[in-house]
Amino acid sequence: MNHVAAPLKLRLPFDDGGLAEYTVRNLPLETDAGATGKPAFNRVAFAAAHVVVDPLANIDPAIDVAIDWEQTLAFREYLWDLGFGVAEAMDTAQRGMGLQWEHARELIRHSVDAARRRPGALLACGAGTDHLSPGAHLTLDDVVHAYEEQVEAIEQLGGRIILMASRALAVIAKGPQDYAYVYSKILSQVREPVILHWLGEMFDPALQGYWGAADHAGAMDVCLSIIEAHASKIDGIKISLLSSEKEIAMRRRLPASVRMYTGDDFNYAELIAGDTQGYSHALLGIFDAIAPAAAASLAELARGNTEAFHRILAPTVPLSRHIFKAPTRFYKTGVVFLAWLNGLQDHFQMVGGQQSARSLLHFAELFRLADAARVLRDPELAASRMRSLLTLGGIHQ
Length: 397
Hints:
Elements: E1 9-13, E2 19-23, E3 45-48, H1 69-81, E4 85-88, H2 101-116, E5 123-127, H3 140-157, E6 161-163, H4 167-172, H5 176-187, E7 194-199, H6 216-229, E8 234-240, H7 244-251, E9 259-262, H8 268-273, E10 281-284, H9 286-289, H10 291-302, H11 306-313, H12 316-323, H13 331-341, H14 360-372, H15 379-392
């Protein structure tokens, strides 16, 4: 393994409350991505992309949103260059955590325009019901109309649909039949096959009990019955339950024409690699943070080099598990933090001030794990930025 030529040292906090010197150990992963065009994958691989805010906008960041379109779109170009599809306006973009539908629609418009300028660029966009205020006053048809509004807006822009879970539906649904009613209405209207998204309650507590069942096994039965009834309108399903066992069980029951997209940011390596009965494609927030390593590993997998796939990707799993640790919904903070460390944006500010959602201890461990995973693109820059954050937090270097 390569090592940094000149030692880069920082004083980092540890869980016991103490401080200790840490030396950056590794050079970034060497890849050939971009050398001969984008790499070839034998899995469909989407990275759910974050947004970059404008830190100089004269707004109240706890209430208002101002997006830096140049840096936000540059990040999508970076993902496309590495061979990924972009999953737009999803949870990773803080959808439902500060990024409202009005902002998401504008984000989708910009990304669709950018994708048009790149032949072969893969883009799919989140359609949901987040412009509704969930409450018992709503009807199922209110939810249907909300989905229709967003689907129509995205399709008119030329976008492909990821059908997101609905908080409003989770509040008013009386059982599986209500989910079947709403999804049947929407799936019967879409222009081309969509990707369904089953987002678990660990990512969004408001989605507890989704699909109208008491547990995930029952929910899976409901979801599969909807998929089987509308298989021609469904490209695949992303499930985000952080359970490889549940994903594999569902994957083996899907119609042959429907893909499983792993949304498991804990177990993605084994799920993408697959087994003798199949494998998962990918639609992952962690690919935003570890894009070069993920691209290199997927290229090796496509070459038939499973050992190299695991060798590259395995060190990223502890990093991902840390970024997505409970409360999981704050994983976006770690994703944006790593983008800042890596020079992919100029600042560490987020929609809704969410840069404050994790502690200095969390960031320190993230830095150590990112070093171990070799995903610090420029260790000297990353160390410099880490020092500035630590100093701001009272840990002088």
